[in-house]
# Entry
Amino acid sequence: MYVFRKTEELIRRLNRALIAQQKVEIFKPAIDTRYHHQKIVSHSEREIRSTPVQFASDIILLAGECDVVGIDEAQFFDDSILEVCNALANSGKRVIVAGLDMDYEGKPFGPMPNLLAIAEYVTKVHAICAQTGELASFSFRLADNDARVLLGEKNAYEARSRQAFFGDKKKRT
# Structure
Protein backbone atom coordinates (compact mmCIF):
# COMPACT_ATOMS: atom_id res chain seq x y z
CA MET A 1 0.00 0.00 0.00
CA TYR A 2 1.22 3.50 -0.90
CA VAL A 3 0.00 6.64 0.87
CA PHE A 4 0.77 10.27 0.01
CA ARG A 5 -0.79 13.71 0.08
CA LYS A 6 -1.45 15.08 -3.35
CA THR A 7 -3.94 14.34 -6.11
CA GLU A 8 -1.44 15.21 -8.85
CA GLU A 9 0.85 12.40 -7.72
CA LEU A 10 -2.06 9.98 -7.46
CA ILE A 11 -3.09 10.73 -11.04
CA ARG A 12 0.51 10.31 -12.23
CA ARG A 13 0.84 6.89 -10.59
CA LEU A 14 -2.54 5.67 -11.79
CA ASN A 15 -1.81 6.78 -15.36
CA ARG A 16 1.43 4.76 -15.25
CA ALA A 17 -0.56 1.69 -14.21
CA LEU A 18 -2.97 2.29 -17.09
CA ILE A 19 -0.06 2.65 -19.54
CA ALA A 20 1.22 -0.70 -18.24
CA GLN A 21 -2.23 -2.10 -19.15
CA GLN A 22 -3.10 -2.98 -15.59
CA LYS A 23 -6.74 -3.04 -14.59
CA VAL A 24 -7.30 0.09 -12.48
CA GLU A 25 -10.29 1.19 -10.41
CA ILE A 26 -10.31 4.65 -8.87
CA PHE A 27 -12.51 5.97 -6.08
CA LYS A 28 -13.20 9.23 -4.29
CA PRO A 29 -15.62 10.27 -1.53
CA ALA A 30 -19.03 11.22 -2.93
CA ILE A 31 -18.92 14.49 -0.96
CA ASP A 32 -15.99 15.73 -3.07
CA THR A 33 -17.71 17.47 -5.97
CA ARG A 34 -15.37 20.48 -6.19
CA TYR A 35 -14.16 20.11 -9.77
CA HIS A 36 -16.20 17.21 -11.15
CA HIS A 37 -18.73 14.71 -9.83
CA GLN A 38 -17.06 11.63 -11.30
CA LYS A 39 -13.47 12.60 -12.06
CA ILE A 40 -10.55 13.23 -9.78
CA VAL A 41 -9.13 16.60 -10.79
CA SER A 42 -5.93 18.18 -9.52
CA HIS A 43 -5.50 21.92 -8.93
CA SER A 44 -3.49 22.02 -12.17
CA GLU A 45 -6.55 20.52 -13.93
CA ARG A 46 -5.11 17.08 -14.66
CA GLU A 47 -7.91 14.57 -14.38
CA ILE A 48 -8.72 10.89 -14.34
CA ARG A 49 -12.02 9.03 -14.22
CA SER A 50 -13.20 7.80 -10.83
CA THR A 51 -16.19 6.35 -9.04
CA PRO A 52 -17.62 8.41 -6.19
CA VAL A 53 -18.54 6.30 -3.16
CA GLN A 54 -20.58 7.12 -0.10
CA PHE A 55 -18.86 4.63 2.21
CA ALA A 56 -15.37 3.12 2.24
CA SER A 57 -16.90 -0.38 2.26
CA ASP A 58 -18.35 0.33 -1.21
CA ILE A 59 -14.79 0.27 -2.56
CA ILE A 60 -14.39 -3.46 -1.85
CA LEU A 61 -17.66 -4.21 -3.63
CA LEU A 62 -16.72 -2.12 -6.68
CA ALA A 63 -13.01 -2.97 -6.98
CA GLY A 64 -13.75 -6.29 -8.65
CA GLU A 65 -10.87 -8.06 -10.33
CA CYS A 66 -8.66 -5.02 -10.81
CA ASP A 67 -4.90 -4.97 -10.20
CA VAL A 68 -4.64 -1.44 -8.81
CA VAL A 69 -7.02 0.54 -6.59
CA GLY A 70 -6.65 4.31 -6.35
CA ILE A 71 -8.33 6.27 -3.57
CA ASP A 72 -8.33 10.07 -3.43
CA GLU A 73 -9.16 12.37 -0.48
CA ALA A 74 -8.96 9.50 2.02
CA GLN A 75 -9.17 11.96 4.93
CA PHE A 76 -12.90 12.31 4.22
CA PHE A 77 -13.62 8.63 4.89
CA ASP A 78 -14.17 7.21 8.36
CA ASP A 79 -11.81 4.71 10.01
CA SER A 80 -13.33 1.81 8.06
CA ILE A 81 -11.04 2.89 5.19
CA LEU A 82 -8.23 1.16 7.14
CA GLU A 83 -9.91 -2.25 6.94
CA VAL A 84 -10.81 -1.64 3.30
CA CYS A 85 -7.23 -0.80 2.33
CA ASN A 86 -5.86 -3.75 4.29
CA ALA A 87 -8.37 -6.16 2.75
CA LEU A 88 -7.56 -4.95 -0.76
CA ALA A 89 -3.80 -5.11 -0.20
CA ASN A 90 -4.06 -8.53 1.47
CA SER A 91 -5.93 -9.81 -1.58
CA GLY A 92 -2.97 -8.90 -3.79
CA LYS A 93 -4.12 -5.55 -5.15
CA ARG A 94 -1.82 -2.55 -5.23
CA VAL A 95 -3.57 0.17 -3.21
CA ILE A 96 -2.59 3.78 -3.85
CA VAL A 97 -4.11 6.34 -1.48
CA ALA A 98 -3.91 10.13 -1.47
CA GLY A 99 -5.08 12.46 1.27
CA LEU A 100 -4.22 15.36 3.51
CA ASP A 101 -2.44 14.32 6.68
CA MET A 102 -3.41 17.50 8.55
CA ASP A 103 -6.52 19.65 8.66
CA TYR A 104 -6.64 23.45 8.44
CA GLU A 105 -5.60 23.71 12.11
CA GLY A 106 -2.48 21.61 11.57
CA LYS A 107 -3.99 18.62 13.42
CA PRO A 108 -4.02 15.00 12.18
CA PHE A 109 -6.89 14.58 9.74
CA GLY A 110 -9.38 11.70 9.93
CA PRO A 111 -7.98 8.22 9.26
CA MET A 112 -4.79 9.52 7.60
CA PRO A 113 -2.41 9.02 10.56
CA ASN A 114 -3.47 5.37 10.81
CA LEU A 115 -3.24 4.87 7.04
CA LEU A 116 0.27 6.30 7.12
CA ALA A 117 1.16 3.88 9.92
CA ILE A 118 0.03 0.73 8.05
CA ALA A 119 1.37 1.69 4.61
CA GLU A 120 4.50 0.04 3.31
CA TYR A 121 5.43 3.19 1.39
CA VAL A 122 4.70 6.82 2.23
CA THR A 123 5.50 9.75 -0.03
CA LYS A 124 4.86 13.15 1.50
CA VAL A 125 4.47 15.63 -1.33
CA HIS A 126 4.87 19.31 -0.51
CA ALA A 127 3.36 22.36 -2.13
CA ILE A 128 5.11 25.72 -2.28
CA CYS A 129 4.28 28.29 0.40
CA ALA A 130 2.32 31.21 -1.02
CA GLN A 131 3.98 33.53 1.52
CA THR A 132 7.64 32.48 1.65
CA GLY A 133 8.29 30.31 -1.41
CA GLU A 134 9.55 27.50 0.86
CA LEU A 135 8.20 23.96 0.99
CA ALA A 136 4.68 23.94 2.41
CA SER A 137 3.23 21.18 4.59
CA PHE A 138 0.22 23.09 5.91
CA SER A 139 -3.11 24.19 4.44
CA PHE A 140 -4.07 27.66 5.65
CA ARG A 141 -7.81 28.29 5.42
CA LEU A 142 -8.52 31.70 3.96
CA ALA A 143 -12.26 31.61 4.74
CA ASP A 144 -13.41 32.55 8.23
CA ASN A 145 -15.13 29.23 8.98
CA ASP A 146 -14.24 26.76 11.72
CA ALA A 147 -16.01 23.66 10.33
CA ARG A 148 -13.56 20.74 10.26
CA VAL A 149 -14.52 19.84 6.70
CA LEU A 150 -14.90 22.72 4.28
CA LEU A 151 -14.47 21.67 0.69
CA GLY A 152 -12.67 24.35 -1.17
CA GLU A 153 -10.87 25.01 -4.37
CA LYS A 154 -7.82 27.20 -4.87
CA ASN A 155 -9.43 30.28 -3.31
CA ALA A 156 -10.42 28.62 0.00
CA TYR A 157 -6.98 27.41 1.13
CA GLU A 158 -3.40 28.46 0.67
CA ALA A 159 -0.29 26.30 1.02
CA ARG A 160 1.94 27.50 3.86
CA SER A 161 5.30 26.65 5.36
CA ARG A 162 5.37 25.96 9.09
CA GLN A 163 6.61 29.48 9.85
CA ALA A 164 3.97 31.21 7.71
CA PHE A 165 1.17 28.90 8.88
CA PHE A 166 1.73 29.40 12.59
CA GLY A 167 2.54 33.10 12.16
CA ASP A 168 -0.77 33.77 10.40
CA LYS A 169 -2.68 31.44 12.73
CA LYS A 170 -1.38 33.42 15.71
CA LYS A 171 -2.50 36.70 14.08
CA ARG A 172 -6.06 35.36 13.75
CA THR A 173 -6.41 34.41 17.42
Q: What stands out?
A: The chain has five helices and twelve strands. The CA atoms of residues 71 and 97 lie 5 Å apart. Helices lie at 7-19, 57-63, 80-90, 112-118, 162-172. Residues 7-19 form the longest helix (13 residues).
